[in-house]
Design brief:
- The chain has helices spanning 6-30, 46-52, 66-79, 81-95, 118-152, 166-170; strands at residues 35-39, 42-45, 103-106, 109-116.
- With 171 residues, the chain is an alpha+beta fold.
- A 4-stranded antiparallel β-sheet has the order 2-1-4-3.
- Strand 3 (103-106) and strand 4 form a beta hairpin.
- It is elongated.
- The N and C termini lie far apart (63 Å).
């Protein structure tokens, strides 16, 4: 099978997209159980970051919103592949802002981040894998839409029937 044929590319994209989405989903769930950050006060668990991360907009930490962008990208992957891919790309870019975190606000004092934990790496890896899965899956759907559009443009010849006068039909 030649890799350059559309059928071969589609047959490679489908399982890769499904695998990336599956492993990305597992990594996202696993990120809840591992420490996301190690601070001077101790480890900060992933579920705590997920539960409180939405408040990051107050201190210009938007990485938590990558969860929403990637979810929307997955939902739109089939119905609107271009928007799904764009949102997945935005999710990866927004998630990258998490590397700039230097401290976690905790009331009057901030907890400095000493090290990124396994939960952080599971979360970031999941966003990247889910983004790859959306990109591969969206390309497949877009290609199938283009094929059906091309098939609809085929012109079929019209049959024209002649009317036979009644006098000739009686003979």
């Amino acid at each position: 099978m030649d890799i350059a044929t559309p059928t071969a590319r589609r047959s490679l994209r489908e399982p890769l997209s499904a695998l990336a989405l599956f492993i990305g989903g597992l990594a996202w769930i696993a990120s809840f159980w591992f420490p996301a950050f190690y601070t001077s006060q101790g480890p900060v668990e992933g579920y705590w970051v997920f539960a409180t991360g939405w408040m990051g907009f107050a201190i210009f930490q938007f990485a938590w919103y990558a969860n929403l962008f990637i979810l929307l990208g997955i939902v739109l992957m089939y119905s609107s592949p271009i928007w799904g891919s764009a949102l997945a790309g935005v999710a990866v870019l927004v998630a990258t802002q998490a590397f700039w975190f230097s401290s976690i606000p905790a009331g009057e004092i901030d907890m400095p981040i000493l090290q990124l934990g396994q939960g952080f790496w599971c979360w970031y890896g999941s966003v990247v894998l889910l983004g790859v899965g959306v990109f591969l899956g969206s390309e497949q759907i877009e290609a199938e839409k283009n094929q059906t559009t091309k098939q609809k443009r085929v012109v079929t010849p019209e049959l024209k029937l002649k009317r036979i006068p009644a006098a000739k039909a009686a003979i």
